[in-house]
Write a structure and sequence with these properties.
Blueprint (H helix, E strand, L loop, with lengths): L1 H13 L10 E10 L2 E5 L5 E6 L2 E2 L8 H12 L3 E9 L5 E7 L2 E2 H7 L4 E2 L10 H9 L13 H8 L5
Parallel strand pairs: 3-6
Antiparallel strand pairs: 1-2, 1-5, 2-3, 4-8, 5-6, 6-7
Helix pairs in contact: 3-4
Length: 162
């Protein structure tokens, strides 16, 4: 009996288990909250609040916040998108890479200077090369060179009262 249990445990230990990948979310962007958060309405009528993974756009009350929202609206509002979920944030929003056709929306926003590549500790984020290029070319929020990240803005001023 112990030998059978040991064989069974050994067999289970050698198997690879992985959580199923979250399903892609296909739908139309029906609302843009700010420069990195949208509401996607699926064909079923279900809605999903999607926070673009890998970017950090200015707070809506922060300098360039309204411009970042307008840029995102121009790219995806009333457009069909596919969100590729990566998880959830602390507010329960779906963190996802957002695609409009073949365009990675996060990449585009950072490249055009409407957001930063999201930093975490020593990780400069997935769009650091695009951010460096936008900075070098004085694009968007980098035009004045005094833009501060949303994290620093919240540290200095608190959250937006909207």
């Amino acid at each position: 009996m112990n030998r059978q249990i040991a064989l069974l445990l050994a067999a289970v230990a050698t198997q690879s288990f992985s959580a199923p990948s979250p399903r892609a979310i296909d739908g139309v962007v029906t609302r843009v909250f700010d420069g990195d958060t949208v509401l996607v309405t699926e064909a079923s009528g279900d809605t999903v609040t999607v926070r673009l993974n890998g970017i950090d756009a200015p707070e809506i009350c922060q300098p360039h916040g309204a411009e970042a929202r307008l840029a995102l609206e121009g790219l995806v509002l009333n457009q069909h998108v596919t969100a590729l979920p990566k998880g959830q944030d602390e507010l329960g929003r779906t963190l996802a890479r957002l695609m409009h056709g073949s365009t990675d929306v996060g990449d585009r926003l950072v490249r055009d200077g409407h957001a930063w590549s999201y930093r975490y500790r020593d990780d400069k984020g997935p769009y650091v090369a695009q951010e460096r290029m936008a900075f070098a070319l004085y694009r968007g929020l980098h035009a004045t060179r005094d833009a501060i990240t949303p994290r620093e803005f919240r540290r200095r001023h608190g959250r937006c009262a909207i």
